[in-house]
Structure formats: structure tokens, C-alpha cells
Amino acid sequence: MKKQTVQVTNEIVQNLFHDQYPNTEVKFGFVTVPVGERLPKEGTNAHEEQEYSYMLKGTLRGVSGGEPYEITAGESSLIPAGEQHWCINDGDEPVELVFALVKA
């Protein structure tokens, strides 16, 4: 399993750019996940893009592809397109990460 992160709600996501190329779409953004926040609120989430993330601050814990994980500042992750996942910030500081969603 690769380290994993989640797709988050629009309330805490800043899209930094969104571009399209022949047969490829890229979204790049920044997320702050407050302490105690679970994403999604219930169940799991999946999306059609590959999700690449880099953790700037904090730690997320969750399940992706049926396997538990923990990812912390300085680590990167990949969630394959279509993989069911969720995470929670159960630490004592907000989590900050940058992400790229790539649909090819």
C-alpha cells in the first residue's frame, strides 16, 4: 500500500489551478483539515482522478483500499483512481497538504 490521503469538502479546499491538456485534466490545490475533521463525514469516498498529495503539517490517519494508514508531515501519497478511502485528523494541530488530481 502507498501512503494515502482523501478528497475533501469545498469548505476547506483551495484550488490553486485547474488545467486541461489533450486527454488529461489536472487540478492542483491546498487543504487545511481542522482538528477532529473526518473526510468524508461518514463512510468512504472515491473519485475518478489519481490523487497525489504532499503533507506540509500534521498527521492524518484512515483507511484506503481496505488498509489502515497514517501519513505525516514530509511524506507524500497516492490514492489510485476509484479506490475507496477516508481519513481523520485526530491529532492536536490542523493538517496542511497540497494535492494534484490527475485524470488521464
Describe this structure as you would to a colleague.
The two termini are 22 Å apart. The chain is built from no helices and 9 strands. It is mainly beta and 104 residues long. The strands form 2 sheets. A 5-stranded antiparallel β-sheet has the order 1-2-9-4-7, with no helix packed on it. A 4-stranded antiparallel β-sheet has the order 3-8-5-6, with no helix packed on it. The radius of gyration is 13 Å and the shape is globular. Strand 5 (59-64) and strand 6 (67-72) form a beta hairpin.
Short descriptors:
single chain; about 100 residues; mainly beta; globular
Q: Could you write a compact summary of the structure shown?
A:
With 104 residues, this protein is mainly β. It is 0% helix and 56% strand.
Secondary-structure map:
Elements (H helix, E strand, L loop, with lengths): L12 E9 L2 E10 L4 E2 L10 E8 L1 E6 L2 E6 L3 E4 L5 E4 L6 E9 L1
Antiparallel strand pairs: 1-2, 2-9, 3-8, 4-7, 4-9, 5-6, 5-8
Strand order of the largest sheet: 1-2-9-4-7
Sheet with the most strands, sense and barrel status = 5 strands, antiparallel
How many H/I helical runs?
A: 0
User: Which band does the percent of strand residues land in?
Assistant: over 45%
Q: What general outline do the C-alpha atoms trace?
A: globular
Q: How widely separated are the two ends?
A: 22 Å
Residue-averaged pLDDT: 87
Q: Number of DSSP strands? A: 9
Q: Summarize the amount of helix as a percent range.
A: under 10%
Q: What does the radius of gyration come to? A: 13 Å
Low-confidence runs: none
- Structural class assignment: mainly beta
**Helix/strand order:** EEEEEEEEE
